[in-house]
Design goal:
Blueprint lengths: L1 E2 L2 E2 L3 E3 L6 E4 L10 E4 L2 H9 L6 H18 L3 H12 L6 H14 L4 H38 L8 E5 L16 H8 L4 E6 L6 H13 L3 E4 L4 H6 L5 E4 L3 E3 L4 E4 L2 H10 L4 E4 L5 E2 L5 H4 L8 H4 E5 L5 E5 L12 E4 L6 E4 L2 E3 L3 H7 L5
Parallel strand pairs: 6-7, 6-9, 7-8, 9-12, 10-13, 12-17
Antiparallel strand pairs: 1-2, 3-4, 4-5, 10-11, 11-16, 14-15, 17-18
This protein binds 5-S-methyl-1-O-phosphono-5-thio-D-ribulose.
Amino acid sequence: MKVGGRSYRTIWLNADGWGVDVIDQRWLPHEFRIATLRNVGDAAMAIRDMWVRGAPLIGVTAAYGVALATREDPSDAALDAAWERLHATRPTAINLRWALDAVRAHLRPLDPAKRAAAAYAQAAEIAGEDVKINRAIGHNGLAIIRSLAAKKRPGEPVNILTHCNAGWLATVDYGTATAPIYLAMEEGLPVHVYVDETRPRNQGASLTAWEFVNHGASHTLVVDNAGGHLMQHGAVDLVIVGTDRTTAYGDVCNKIGTYLKALAARDNGVPFYVALPSPTIDWTVRDGVSEIPIEERSADEVHFVQGLGDDGKVSRVRISPKGSPAANPAFDVTPARLVTGLITERGIAKASPEGLKALFPERV
Ligand code: MRU
């Protein structure tokens, strides 16, 4: 996608041919900073401290993290240590384990002298595959937007609500939930997006809104609590969110607050779709509510808000009284029964074991 007229992906090889450049998302939307990861510790820190975030991008960064580790030490022990270190960074997004397992399984049988080159090649392949998957999700989701647009008066937009950032910053390019929106724009369909700010880290306000400003997408930023009201008043035609892990039975784990949007959507007859790249499916898990580990992040994310001051500097301010305890569960699970459909790279599946199996028969 474009930033200031120049095309970027969210992760790429540094000009030195081995360092890994990423957009340091902690500073957006106020500052566009690029950071270079030079060892597995850098990669682990970038994931843990959310320089990079979003399930697909976490997976790709982890794959490059293994490449950086293997470059320094290609032994079996170092490979396992890199797997453990990177896996411990964030517990919920399943793409992390998926990418680490894939790279380790690929490298293990190789002569250690060949492992670093193979790891870089595989990380690049996973990154390239992510872009293809997202474009395919975009095409499949576009069909939903087209059919809603067909019921509108000429020029009247399809109104879409999205939560958190499942945009290109959460992936390598295009995004998952945003891919159908970007393709609808390419096709000239009028779309308007309500962007949930997404407390506590405000990925909607700081990242999705920034993407839309850069891409010229018509949007309105709303507080998280506005969604139900908007749906009640007919302002939302469609909800599309991303996911950090979806079970083989169709339960969808995504950024905290997603479940409430799904409840409001069901109560108001608004279709609720989830954009789902296949590496985000956890085929080993059946019941999302009881089986998916929910990341509990620092209470500071609730107590403090980061923003741009009148002095032009990015800083954080406290919004709660000192001494007030806070809890910060980062994700929730929307049961399959509330999900209208899963937009995958292979088509739109029902959120059910049968629906997923029909599209991914090799996983049965
Ligand atoms: O905590 P984050 O920012 O890594 O969480 C990301 C999300 O939950 C996104 O909303 C998303 O839907 C999953 S990534 C496409």
